[in-house]
Amino acid sequence: MDLMGLYSKIFRPWPPIRDATALADFIDEQSAFVVQKGIYEYSRARAGHYAKVLFREQSFQDAVERSRWQAYPLGLAMIAELAEGVLSTEGALERRLLLDPLARVVLTVFDRYPIPEALGEQVWTGARAELVRRLQLIGLHPPKRAMDIPEPFVDSYFALMPIHKKLRGSDYGTTKNYLRVTLCNIHDELTRRLDAKAMAGSLGLAEEGAPQGFGR
Known about the structure:
Layout: H1 3-11, H2 20-47, H3 51-56, H4 58-90, H5 95-110, H6 121-137, H7 154-159, H8 172-193, H9 196-202
Helix pairs in contact: 2-4, 2-5, 2-8, 4-5, 4-6, 4-8, 5-6
């Protein structure tokens, strides 16, 4: 890729998020980003000078592959909750009408992917069921600040790090802070890009708040 082409990709303005498809893409990209970035950066930090050697080892590559796929549904659940908060606040959409259409968008994102070889059917099916459960929990409490959303996910996420637990030291707090800061940044991006009125129509919500059906 030429330098100008790379420059234009990095600094191009991001398009508005106006419909369910764009929202699904955003949720997918950000979910993958938040969990994978944390896994790779944590592993490099713990390996230190041996990071290049570690990342070349097949056993470690296999461990990372398992970790990132197991963590992906956690990312989906976190970004879904973040999106629900932005949509209900910026779009003034009634939560009880928003939750089901949003959950369906998130599950279509999960279903984009075939069963990962690193996990197998049983684990992947269980991960989907757990994602459904977590999506149902969103409506059982008031919307959270972006920085507070990771709280119930940190234990599960930190346990998936492809580093032996005896070598993790006191890194739990660092991982928690990473998730908090990253979710705040994603919140800001979604707030900037969201066209709330158009999104309401795409999700099947009339301006007066009546359900209108949903399809992707």
